[in-house]
Amino acid sequence: MEQLVERFIRYVKINTRSDEGSKSCPSTTGQTVLANMLVDEMKEIGLQDISIDQNGYVMATLPANIAKEVPIIGFLAHMDTSPDNKAENARPQILEHTGKGIILNKKANIVLSPMEFPVINNYIGQKLVTTDGTTLLGADDKAGIAEIMTAMDYLIRHPEIKHGTVRIAFTPDEEIGRGADKFDVKKFNAGFAYTVDGGALGEIEYENFNAAKAKITIQGLNVHPGSAKNKMKNSMLIAMELNNMLPAYEVPEHTEAYEGYVHLTEMKGNVENSTINYIIRDHDLKLFNKKKDFLIKIVDHLNLKYGPRTVKLILVDQYYNMKEKIEPVFHIVELARKAITEIGITPRTIPIRGGTDGSRLSFMGLPCPNLFTGGHNFHSRFEFIPIKSMQKAAEMIVKIVEMNAL
Fold first, then answer.
1. Angle at 301 between CA 296 and CA 307, to 5 degrees
2. Active-site residue numbers?
3. Bridge-partner residues for 384, per DSSP?
4. Residue after which a domain boundary falls, among 272, 304, 319
């Protein structure tokens, strides 16, 4: 446990915030710093076939210690943290939850409150890793990295645990949707894998959103407001009109479980020019396509109303629901469930209300469900992770590897 926590705290102190505006891979130099640190650590613990390519993808092998042939299994996590500007300068701390509000920052009066976040009451009496409440923690997904590294270290130190070949990989830029862009599935050479990038204790995920992003630009016409009648086209008002035509309750703040949404992520502009950006999400492919088609119809309607080329839409699919790729090899989900049960945890299968490298990798030929890290409140200043949950995640990885060889 001490090694696991030490690794995690060391990793989160490195600023690996990704940058969507960057054209490089990795998108930020901090990810390269962490990647090189991981390579050195892999050498120290005795992993083999260690590599880091020109795009910052780190891979390594734990060789089999049995003669019996079993499927090569893989584990992956991503090195970047959210592009949010609060992802920098994390100051992790270990605090015990006594059942009251947890004071993260006494000076600034920042409290992790059971009233706002009742889930913390599941961890009374446990030690949690948090920040001082001014930054994100970065457990998404440095917890996954720490858990994978600790599991590999444990397996090397305990050769009595028999296992087949294990491959591990750490990827850049997952948070900006590029984590699988340059991943070499053939080089990785695993029969199946798991991303260790999930949430609460016991969670297994093999269903995720179908996803698209929409960038809409609106060309207005600005004239003096004193003589604007029947001439002015205010691009901001057209943007507001477009948004008001979308279903009011199909937004993240009013949806849960399998319910999809269209999420307004950015709006900026003036009378002459405006830009609005959306992400579109749904587990059901038909409903996903219906949401996209409706947005196209709105744009067509506004161009009829205000003139051709007033509103321009760029609509791009980002990833798809991995369920269709996992169901034919569902034994890999069952393997994870059995392993979680073996370590004394009740497995919970839930849909991902987001994306994961595992989704794209599954469509690239590497079936890849998602496993828990133990973290909560990802992408929030109130992010935390119980140390016991991290320990169980590392135990889960070891148990999956062991049971894969039976």
1. 115
2. 80, 174
3. 376
4. 319
In the predicted model, is pLDDT for residue 246 greater than 90? Answer: yes
Residue 207 has φ and ψ, to the nearest 5°, of: -125, 135
Nearest CA to 370 out of 380, 360, 378 is that of: 360
Q: Which two tokens stand for residue 401?
A: 């590897």
The 8-class DSSP code of residue 352 comes to: B
From the list 321, 389, 335, 352, the residue with the least C-alpha distance to 73 is 335
86 and 177, same structural domain?
yes
Please state the φ and ψ torsions of residue 52, each to the nearest 5 degrees: -135, 120
When pLDDT is averaged across residues 198-222 and rounded to a whole number, the result is: 95
Summarize pLDDT for 273-328 with one digit per residue, the tens: 999 999 999 999 999 999 999 999 999 999 999 999 999 999 999 999 999 999 99
Residue 111 structure tokens: 């409290």
Q: What is the pTM of this model?
A: 0.90
Query: What is the dihedral angle through the alpha carbons of 140, 146, 148, 151, rounded to the nearest 10 degrees?
Result: -150
Q: Based on the fold, state whether residues 52 and 196 are members of the same structural domain.
A: yes
Cα–Cα distances in angstroms (integers) from residue 257 to residues 95, 247, 400, in the given order: 31, 18, 27
Instruction: State the amino acid at position 187 in one-letter form.
Output: K
Q: Which residues pair with 214 in a beta bridge?
A: 278, 315
3-state DSSP assignment of residue 93: strand
